[in-house]
Amino acid sequence: MLKLKFFLIPLACLFAFILQSSYSIGQAAIYGDGVRRLELTRGTWGVPDNETKILQSALVCDYLRSRILSPNCYGVDAVILKPLSGITDLVVSSAKSSGFVEFGDWDSQTAPKLIVQIEASLRRQVKKACFAIGKNCAFSDWIVHPKLLKNKQYFVLSYNFKMADQLINKAQVIVYDRKGYIAFDAGVDSSFEASEEQPVFDLLIEIADRYKQADDYRYADFNYRDKAFFIQFTEMLTEHFDLTRKTPMDSVEEGYAIAGYVAIGLLTLIILLVFLQGVVSSDVRPKEKCGKES
Hints:
This protein is α+β, with helices and mostly antiparallel strands. Helix content is 37%, strand content 28%. It is built from 6 helices and 14 strands. The chain has an 8-stranded antiparallel beta sheet with strand order 1-5-6-7-12-11-10-9, sandwiched between helices. Strands 2-3-4-13 form a 4-stranded antiparallel beta sheet. The longest helix has 36 residues, at 248-283. The chain is globular and about 90 Å long. The N and C termini lie far apart (144 Å).
């Protein structure tokens, strides 16, 4: 029995070591401002304390497959577990180089329409993701309606969806830079399920504020003489949220197509009229008289 204990104790220690090695804070380093920062594609993220766990890259894909509504693991910079009070995990997507995003087309008229389209897209995504794992889910309600903070270059949103009797909260904050944007996808703790907008909104702002863009990537440093292409805000949302929205170019191309169809229809009608007129005129012949005139 004593020999068995001597065997089991080292085995338990080995198991604990393997479990602990699933996480790492070695990817984060102390910077000049005294903050432990995690290296990302185009910047760093300030890790709150040593208790925060950063998932090792070899385990990221398996973790994300077990998480409902997660981005593709090959487009993820890092997964951070319990980074802040109220956040269960934080998935940091690799920075997107869509081009410098201009916010001029997000206004009081376009915003409500785009929010409706974002909600419709999320409803489809929730249903599809849950169907894939044999669950029945549905979008429930907004906690933080999609909102653009032009002064900070942030875009935030948070919503609940139901899975059986469970209510799950998802939240996201997007930070824009001079090349495109980076998305932080947060799982909100269940204590925030029935919360009002402000606490979740504050959490998202803290997540974004902890991100420090690398030199030459700050949104404010963009110069119009830079060799970069521009993208409208609504176009970026269409790409990121997979919206079924027509771009201005789609409308132009559709207009050309309609004009082409109308021209073909008119040409066909003209040809038919000319052809029918020829057929009618060739059939109109003077009738021969049956008898001789007296």
